[in-house]
Amino acid sequence: MQTLVISGGSSGIGKATASLFAERGWRVFELSRHGVSVTGEGLPVTGKIIHIFCDVCSEESTRAAIAEVLKQTDHIDVVISNAGYGISGSVEFTNIPDAEHQMDVNFMGAVRFTQAVLPQLRKQHGGRLIYTSSVAAALPVPYQAFYSASKAAINAMALALANEVKDFGISVSVMMPGDVSTGFTDARCKSTAGEEVYTGARKAITTMEHDERAGMAPRQMAQLFYHIATCHDPRPQYVGGFSYRVLCFLDRLLPKRFVNWIEYKVYS
Questions:
Q1: Does CATH number 3.40.50.720 belong to domain 3-267?
Q2: Set 10, 134, 148, 150: catalytic member
Q3: In the annotation, is 134 catalytic?
């Protein structure tokens, strides 16, 4: 039985991904602050989901969670770093502690998770590391600057890491979803500070959240994760959703000034 370890698998894209892998016979270790274990009887096939408490903001908690995984298995095939959340608000008026926490959860959380699992992947000389990034890493969204920055940081780290661990037989990929309809939208921490100055902020955030609620199903992203996990030679980066792949392709071709102007028009 193949083994998946996923952080942030108790809701949204992570939950859909954990469920899909389990349905296809994988043993899934779901690491998050919330979640429940699911025995094989509750799934269509033979897999199971084992929940282990993990707070990716704590190095001690993250390493303890991976240690518990390794008490139950001696091999990890795929690791998905998925834990994260979002904040919104203007750069000028975002509280520094809020910006720091955004980076701590999304980026440093991925770093802690990576450092905890790499010794095992090196020991077994193989495995796949996959990170949940965002199209916002390539096309940063106004009034979501710190979320966009946290995902861009993941992209940069993953590309560097891929070359560091190549000789150990470990592959590294990022998956950048476009708009996906999940509870992520309602869970976003929204700041209204400075809206009397940045009068377009509320409309931009409303537009963004409308697009998210009308977005793709989490299952669609789960299927892409499964493809990355099982294909012969995974690429360094994937974009979730055809229209978003087109947008990211055009971003590489067109002048950045023009692309950024289009984003301004979309959200203003």
A1: yes
A2: 10
A3: no
